[in-house]
Amino acid sequence: AIQDDGKLIVVGEFGMLSGAAFGKVARLNPDGTADSEFTPGMGANDIVHAVGMQQDGGIIISGEFSTVNGKEYPFVARLLPDGTLDEEWGGVATGINGAVFDVGTLSDGKVIIGGEFTEVGGYSRNSYARLHFTGELDRNFDPGEGANGPVFTVAIQPDGNILLGGQFTQAGGFEQNNITRVFGGEQHALGRVEFRTPRIEYDEGVASHELKVIRSGNVQEPVTVQYKSVSGTANEGEDFVAVSGELNFETGGREAMITVSLLEDELAEGNESFAIELTSEAEGIDLGGRTSIEVVVIDNESSAGFDQLALEAGESVGEMALVVNRSGGLIAEATVAYTVQDGSAKAAEDYAAESGVLTFAEGAASASIVIGILDDLIEESSEDLTVTLSDPSEGLTLVGELTATVTILDNDQPVSGLTTFEMGMIPEGSGWSSSGSKPWYAQTDEVFEGSYSLRSGKISDAQESILVLEKETGSGTGYFHVKVSSEQDWDFLEFSLNGSALGKWSGRVDWKKFEFPLQAGLNRLVWSYRKDSGTFAGMDAAFIDDVLLPPVEPPAITELTESMSVFEG
C-alpha cells in the first residue's frame, strides 16, 4: 500500500529487511530503503497477506497470524502511522475464527474483511464481514448466508460497495461463481429486499403457491415494501387472481412470503406468464436487485406446434430435423400426423421423406420430423418443400401455424458447357430461339433433373414446334436428355445438327441421354416436334433437359524461349 507521502507499506512472510528485523510488515522510503522510523516491534508471528490504508493514517493488516508485537491479535490488527500496534482497536474481542486474506477500508473508518472464516464476534459470518472503526463486528452489515467458499480479494468501489473474489459458487444465497458485489456503504441503511429468484414455474392445476422475498444487509430495523401482480401473456381473472399488498419485515427478519393463486382452464394455450413487482417509497431500502419475478404458468392441457416455421438447409447437409414442441401435460404418449409436400423441390430428386405420424414419448417436450436432403450435381436455384401438421391424438391440441417451409440451398458449381433451364425460361442472348406454330417453353411437370425442362409448344394437327441453338463450340461429344409422349410412328421429335438428321423419337420414350459428335466452330442444333393431321396420343409433346456442348478451348499461350527477343516500341 502507498501512503500519501510516497512511502510504501510492504507485508509478507519476511523477517529481515535491509539488515534490520521486521516481522512480516515494514515501510520503505520513496528511494526503496527501509524506513527506520516505522517501528512495528516484533511484528506478526505468521504470514501477513494484506494491508489497507485508512484516511487518518492507520494501517490495517490481515493474514494468518495470531499475535502482533507479542499481543494476541488473531488474523487482523491495526497499526498506528509509526508502525506500533493500536491496542484500542480489535484484538481478541473481534473474535475471528479463521484466516483473513484481504481487507478493504471505507471512508468512515470501517473495514471489510474477506477470508476463510465462519464466525466474527460470536455471530455467523461466512467468509466476509464488516468491522466498526473500533475493530468490533458491525452487525448492521449482515450478509446472511455469506459465501460458501473462501474470499481471497476485496475491492472497495467509490460508492462504498464491495467487490469480492474467491473460490465460491454462492454468495448471500445466490449463485455467484467466484466473483460478486455486495453493498457495504450506508446509502441503503435499511438493507436490500428482493425475490430469491427472477423466475419460477408452477403447474396450472395447483391452485396456490408462495413466493419467497428475502432481505439482506442491515436487518436491524423494520421495513415495509409493497407488491402487486402485472399481467403478461397470462391474464388477470382468467389465468391468475390479481394480488397486491404490503410485506412487513420485523427487526432481524430476513424472509417474507407472497401467496399467488392460479386459475385452471380447459384451453390448450401453451405456457403463459405474469409478474409480481416490489416497490417502496421509503428511503434507505435497496430495491436494485430482483424486484420483479416472472411467474410461468405451465399449461396442463397438452399442445404442440412447430419450433420454427421457416428453415434452410444446404444441399450437402444430408438431413435436417423439423422440431415440433409439446407443452402442457407431458405425462402420456401423444401423436400428430404430418404431410410432406413438394414445392419447387421434388421428392426422390431433392429430398427423401414421406408423410407419416410423429410420436411424443412419455414426458417428452419435443420430437423431430427428419427430412433427408439429396445432393445432386445440377446447378439450380433454391428449392422448397412444406410440412403440415394435422390429426393430433386425443388430449393434444395443435397451436400456431401448422405448415413449415424447408428451403434447400444449391451447392453446385456450373458445369462448363452445360445448359440447364432452372431459370424457368429459354436462355436469352445465348443462341437459343424457338419458332413454328407454337414455341417451346420451360415447365415443371416433366423434368430429368432439377425443377425445369423445356417442352415443345402445344400444337394442333399438322403443326410443328421448333427449338434452335446456334453456338460456337469446341470439338468433342455433346449430349442432351430427351423424353417423348406422342402417337407412335406418326407424331415425332427430330434432332438435326448442321442440317443433318441425327435422331428421331416417336411414341412413348422415357427420359434417355442422347450423345452426338461435334466439330469445333459454329454449330446449329435443331429440335423439331411435328404432328400429323390425325389422332391424338399421350401428352402430344417432346421434352429436353440438360444440354451439354463442348466448350471452346482457350487459345494456347506461347512461352518465350531464349532465342526469342522482345522489343519495346
TrEMBL record:
Name a Pfam family for this protein: DUF5122
Matches recorded under InterPro entries: CaCA, CalX-like_sf, Calx_beta, Delta_60_rpt, Quinoprotein_ADH-like_sf
Q: What is one cellular component GO term in this UniProt entry?
A: membrane
Q: Does the keyword Nucleotide-binding apply?
A: no
Q: Which GO terms describe its biological process?
A: cell communication; metal ion transport
What's in the keyword line of the UniProt record? Calcium, Ion transport, Repeat, Signal, Transport
Q: Where is the Calx-beta domain?
A: 180-279, 291-390
Q: PANTHER family this protein is in?
A: NA_CA-EXCHANGE PROTEIN, ISOFORM G, SODIUM/CALCIUM EXCHANGER
Q: What is this protein called?
A: Calx-beta domain-containing protein
